[in-house]
Amino acid sequence: MKYWKRTGKWICILYLACHSATAAEHHFSGLIDVRASYTDGTESYVDGGLGKFRFDDGTQLSLSQVGLTYKVDWENAFSAHVTANGYLDNTRNDIGITEAFLNYRSLPWQNGLRLKGRLGLMFPDISLENIATAWSSPYTLSYSAINSWLGEEFRHLGAELTLERLGKFHNSKHDLALSAALFQYNDTAGAMLAWHGWTLSSRQTLLHESLPLSNMPSLAGGSLDDQADESDPFIELDDRFGYHVHGQWRFKGNGEVSLGYYDNNANTLVFKNGQYAWLTKFTHAGVKWRLPYQIELISQVMYGSTLMQSPEAVDVVNNDYQAAFVLLTKRWDKHRLTIRAEDFEVSDNDATFDDNNNEQGNALTLSYQYRLQKSWFIQAEYNRIDATRDAKVEQGLPKEMLEQQWQLATRWYF
User: Fold this and answer.
1) Helix (H) / strand (E) containing 4
2) What residues contact residue 203 under an 8 Å CB cut-off, 6+ apart?
């Protein structure tokens, strides 16, 4: 029932909009990703371990992602989008909704301004990687650490409004956009980053899922004894709205630059049913640019903080964090070659003796893609993470671990 309470009002809005329209066009698109992988590491964070990859140690054959998006366009400025994803990956098999929203897009006014809006369940407008069907990445099989975290703990249940200034109305190649979003149901964002750290993944948390925590000493009779064994990432605890503001500059034929600020505005004194409210905020910036020799550059950086307190206002978790990546990709004929380098860090500022969240690491991804047909690809990828995390020692693991992953996938977009 709790999941219906979260989304019921938005589903009703979409349903009424569908039946109020006189005519509509219906579109389906999707992705099937079948993947073989070998991971040299430890138990995956998806299973409640401290492994940095989606898959457990060893060899896996999986249906890594089945994504399906339904879109309906009415004969006006409105459309609706619903996306579902499913996984049969021997780690955590499941299927469910990842996005469902009503979209508004006005015609440009004479001064070149245009208004856009979204209402419902949606990813925050941050990622420059995950731009393909069902929030997948056309560049690599595993997302960057920044976008892996967004896929795991972030979804907006609310409204977003964007004002665009289109340069073509002023004989200019420059477009500008400014967005603002108000949302709820993201009060525990930050918990998984604190308790398992940065990861490289290709799995998006489904709306109904909760996320298992590792076997932390602080959970078993320690300072976090009241915390549930799983974190619920899309829950409303304090009835307050968070916000996200985001600006973008696009230079036609060259690229784009973006800058934004996110604040879930959580009340850290609230604790319900084993779930604490986390005050999580960050600044993010990104650039996507076309370089010589048809090379494309994508880079994003994020830095922020997350705070979780006891009902008595004592800091239990107080972390600063940052991450950045640089991605270079080149496509020619039927080939695409991509390289991505990353650096990430979590700094633990609290005095909780049995919950050390300090982490520092870097990652490297090499990916090669070959197009068999128009929408059918095979892709090989190597991922490497070298990270130091103090909490691993408490669970019998080395403080510093080098984890590696090899993947071979066939991906069909339709």
Assistant:
1) helix 2-20
2) 46, 54, 65, 87, 89, 92, 151, 152
Q: What is the mean pLDDT of residues 127-142?
A: 98
pTM given for the model: 0.94
Indicate the average pLDDT of the chain. Answer: 94
What is the amino acid identity at position 182? Answer: L
pLDDT at 165: 98
Residue in 7, 26, 159, 17 with CA at minimum distance from that of residue 98: 7
Q: Which two tokens stand for residue 206?
A: 């489904």
Q: How far apart are CA 230 and CA 30, in angstroms?
A: 30
Structure tokens belonging to residue 405: 């992953």
Rounded CA gap, 65 and 136, in Å?
Answer: 9
Cα separation of 323 and 229, whole Å? 27
pLDDT at 142 over 90: yes
What is d(CA 286, CA 101) in angstroms, rounded to the nearest whole number?
25
Distance CA 199, CA 51 (A): 8
Q: Transcribe 117-155 into DSSP letters.
A: EEEEEE--TT-SS--BGGGB-SS-SS--HHHHHHHHH--
Is 349 within 8 Å of 325 (Cβ atoms)? no
Residue 10: predicted pLDDT = 52
Q: What is the pLDDT of residues 218-259, one digit of tens each?
A: 988 889 999 999 999 999 999 999 999 999 999 999 999 999
Q: Which residues contact 392 (CB under 8 A, 6 or more apart)?
A: 50, 398, 399, 401
Q: Residue range 37-64: average pLDDT?
A: 96
